[in-house]
Write a structure and sequence with these properties.
Length: about 290
């Protein structure tokens, strides 16, 4: 139930539909965002709204997709969806896709349609896992070429490997997958950036192949404010195994500790102290609270 913003209008949830010949459904050429709104003293507030909207427009630009709306309109649409659905916290999904106006790769009469939906969503990986950490498996799936050359775009077509990796990890009894890039370096989770801690220093893969995550940026800033050294570099699989701490970041996953990788305990095999500090600072920030 509730309302979804579709092509400039608020429509009832059930009526926000598209045709089976929707072009993006067939060929995967589309862009999207994952955004969260949090409860604050001043009501629901969307965290880093402008950064998400900017990334959405950059993704569209990379794909050569002409956006039918400007940034202000899509910002306003996101605020309206949260407000009109009476949500005090929410996960938002803006998405832009090619419609059913034409079929085949050569279609030249396609329209870009935009949608913003929002719903209540708690911890993506579970409350308890936020305290104790998750179990992760290095995936047998790597990012293919398109992902590496197009990794700045948060594009629908870039998520097949993520889905395959997550499916594989869950079938094998793990909570999440960690993907390597085509050169064998550690890249990211199915929908999260990854960090490790070693001897008090925070390391995360540089942006050669990982998505420029907004939570990643936020955590790097918080760590620097705490005087923690942050190094962005290529990371190998064995460096993860011998890390003192590890965690994922993402709008959905927030800051999720990793307690085990491929059956090997990370550090003490539970949420580490630096992870805990950054996680709690992240939650203070998104809820607009002064740090304790
Ligand atoms: N990496 C991938 C592949 C993602 O899909 C996401 C989710 O948006 C992230 C990383 C984390 O990015 P952000 O913190 O902006 O949500």
């Amino acid at each position: 139930d509730g309302l979804i913003w579709l092509d400039g209008e608020m429509v009832p949830w059930r009526e926000a539909q598209t045709h089976v010949l929707t072009h993006t459904l067939h060929y995967g050429m589309g862009v999207f965002e994952g955004v969260r709104a949090y409860q604050t003293d001043r009501g629901a507030a969307i965290f880093r709204l402008q950064e998400h909207t900017d990334r959405l427009f950059n993704s569209a630009h990379i794909l050569g997709m002409d956006m039918p709306w400007d940034r202000d309109t899509l910002n306003a649409a996101q605020c309206a969806v949260v407000r009109e659905n009476g949500l005090d916290s929410a996960y938002l999904r803006p998405m832009c896709f090619y419609g059913p106006e034409g079929m085949g790769l050569r279609a030249d009469n396609l329209k870009v349609h935009c949608v913003v939906a929002a719903w209540s969503w708690g911890s993506y990986l579970g409350e308890e896992n936020m305290r104790n950490g998750i179990r992760v498996k290095f995936s047998s799936f790597t990012r293919h070429h398109v992902n590496i050359t197009m990794c700045r775009a948060k594009a629908n077509g870039n998520y097949m490997n993520s889905m395959l990796a997550l499916q594989e990890a869950q079938r094998d009894g793990y909570d999440e997958a960690l993907l390597l890039d085509a050169s064998g370096y550690v890249m990211e989770g199915s929908g999260e950036n990854v960090f490790i801690v070693r001897d008090g220093v925070l390391y995360t893969p540089d942006l050669t192949s990982a998505l420029d995550g907004i939570t990643r940026r936020t955590v790097i800033t918080l760590a620097k404010e705490f005087g923690i050294e942050v190094v962005e570099k290529r990371i190998t699989r064995d460096e993860v195994y011998i890390a003192d701490e590890a965690f994922f970041t993402g709008t959905a996953a927030e800051v999720t500790p990793i307690r085990e990788v491929d059956g090997r305990a990370i550090g003490a095999g539970t949420r580490g102290p630096i992870t805990e500090r950054l996680q709690s600072a992240y939650f203070d920030l998104v809820h607009g609270r002064d740090a304790a």
